[in-house]
Design a protein that fits this description.
The protein contains 4 helices and no strands. By secondary structure, the protein is mainly alpha-helical. It has one domain.
Amino acid sequence: MRLEGRFSDVTTQVRLLVAGSVVLVAIAGIAGVAGVAVAIATVNRLTDELVPAADANAAVLQDMTDAETGLRGWVVTDDRTFLQPYQQARTSLVADQRQLREYAEKHPQLQSEVREQEAAVRDWFDAYAVPRVRDPAGPGHISHQRLLFGKSKFDRVRTANAAVQGELNRAVNHAKLSAFSELPWIVFVLLLVAVAGAVASLFARRVAHRITEPLVDMERTVDRLAAGRHRRAA
């Protein structure tokens, strides 16, 4: 009866060991998967949304710079080859603005800046560039007052573009901080798994000792019984 009771206690401990280990590993695994999923989602947002939006905004400024440079070159020289980058920039500008607008539609905090940039771009073309292309160019047709007017319109474009880029930079920095903030959580989960494994290993050693102890007692009992039979037989 004593051995049966001890075996019953050992069985109970083994069951608790297995159940506890499963629970600890499951909790740690779920927490780890959640942390990794959040980190991956943050990285995906950086690569799939923020970086392309920042690239599109930089492309808008480059398009406008090409258009302004080409137009200014034509105004000074009357060489229409300078208008080629102006025309090409107007074409590529449509696609770059569309990409930036699509991002802004999903992020309301950026919509006002993007609308201001689009308004500044339209204003430069409508108030200065398009009317200027209609007029004669060359050394005899240069108006410094008109050039300064065009420059003021283009400065508005630069300011609006910088505002958009500022909002995008804040979003990028926030996403990076979010990704980095997940690292301690993931490290904590890994440490939790390691501690759970150490505790389970220690508990397993104790249970193994409890299992071997009654077996040794049983072996000694059997040896004594066998020795007693041997003496009686002799």
